[in-house]
Amino acid sequence: MSVIEAPRTPRPATARRTNWEKWGWIYMRVSGVVLVVLIFGHLFVNLMVGDGVKAIDFGFVGGKWASPFWQWWDVLMLWLALIHGSNGMRTLVNDYTKPGTAQKVLKGALFVVAAALIILGTLVVFTFEPCPANAPLELLPSFCSAN
């Protein structure tokens, strides 16, 4: 004979696990708001301040990335946008594929691509040198000194 539990009987305590879906949902909302601020700030500085879009060239980027403030601004925008977009794609993979090998492969590919782009983009921002030492003079931009 089987016993049916009485209604509203508390369930036995189980180990608490992190609810990754909840944290992914929260991340999407918070990062979306922060990205709006970062992107509009980026657009304002690049397009409205100074000579506008006509001033954007190699020298403009070199001068902007000479400041740690703008380096971190752009890196934060890069990280948030790539993680935000990858998390959105992960949600689409969950919605449109059945759990199994294909889903794991797609999620793994998303992770690898996002991680590679974050690493490469961060390296570009922090190692960007518009006037490298010992470079041929004909390859240097006009604003570099001939030292």
Write a structural description.
This protein has 147 residues and is an all-alpha fold. The chain has one domain (23-128): 3 helical TM bundles of succinate and fumarate reductases. 63% of the residues lie in helices and 0% in strands. The protein contains four helices and no strands. The chain has helices spanning 20-48, 58-64, 68-96, 101-127. Helix 1 crosses helix 3 and helix 3 runs antiparallel to helix 4. The longest helix is centred in the first third of the chain and has 29 residues, at 20-48. The chain is elongated. It starts with 19 loop residues before the first helix and ends in a 20-residue tail after the last helix.
Q: What is the total tally of β strands? A: 0
CATH class: Mainly Alpha
**CATH homologous superfamily?**
Fumarate reductase/succinate dehydrogenase, transmembrane subunit
What integer is the average pLDDT? 88
Shape: elongated
Number of helices: 4
CATH T-level topology:
3 helical TM bundles of succinate and fumarate reductases
Q: Classify the helix fraction into a percent range.
A: 55-70%
How many domains? 1
Question: Using only CA atoms, what is the Rg?
Answer: 24 Å
Structural class: mainly alpha
InterPro entries: SQR/QFR_C/D, SuccDH_FuR_B_TM-su
Subcellular location: Membrane
Pfam families: Sdh_cyt (PF01127)
GO cellular component, one term: membrane
Layout of helices and strands:
Blueprint: H1 20-48, H2 58-64, H3 68-96, H4 101-127
